[in-house]
Amino acid sequence: MKRIFTSFIFSLLTLSFAFAGGYKVGDKAADFSLKSVDGKMVSLKDFTDAKGVVIIFTSNHCNTSKDYEDLFIKLDKKYKELGYHIVAINPTDPEVNPKESHAHMVMRAEKKGFTFPYLSDDKQSVARAFGATKIPEAFLLEKVGDDFIVRYTGMVDVISDFSATDKSLRYLSNAIDALLEGQKPDPAFTKPEGCRVNYTAE
After folding, report:
1. Which among 169, 130, 170 is positioned nearest to 153, based on CA atoms?
2. Predicted TM-score (pTM) of this structure
3. Contacting residues for 24 by C-beta, under 8 A, at least 6 apart
4. What is the pLDDT of residues 45-56, one digit of tens each?
5. What is d(CA 153, CA 202) in angstroms, rounded to the nearest whole number?
6. Which domains does the chain have, with CATH numbers?
């Protein structure tokens, strides 16, 4: 019984460490290399001519993320022409949830007609580095020289208000627009909402 309790406490500490870390606004994001649904490896360094990249952690099964998928596509089509590219990352361990396997990701991307890379972070190393806690959760990176600097983290736009006259809840869109205008996003952080990222103990 004592051994089980000790193991449980260790697991909690491991998961707490994962949530305690992560990038803050102003940090430099480290490059990564993850497999996309088209079988190619994708890295930040691939976006040499971009003004920036929007990393969105998402998944196949989370209902909140599925509700947002059309918006992901809309944002990608709008902003990649302006230099900011959407990159979706699935941080779920497929051994824990088989519906998050690469094969299922391929099927999801084809069904929805994703216009952006959809990457598998099955080892959760990139999610841990970013400190992702929710699905969906956005990290807006601005390209400064050869570096990618975090300028906004948190919610994507509130879906019901994406087409509304009041643009105050277009958190991610407003942040990108601010960078395009040479300004700093305000707010630069919002609390993400959605499904929890379930980290497995390392």
Report:
1. 130
2. 0.88
3. 150, 153
4. 999 999 999 999
5. 25
6. 2-196 (3.40.30.10)
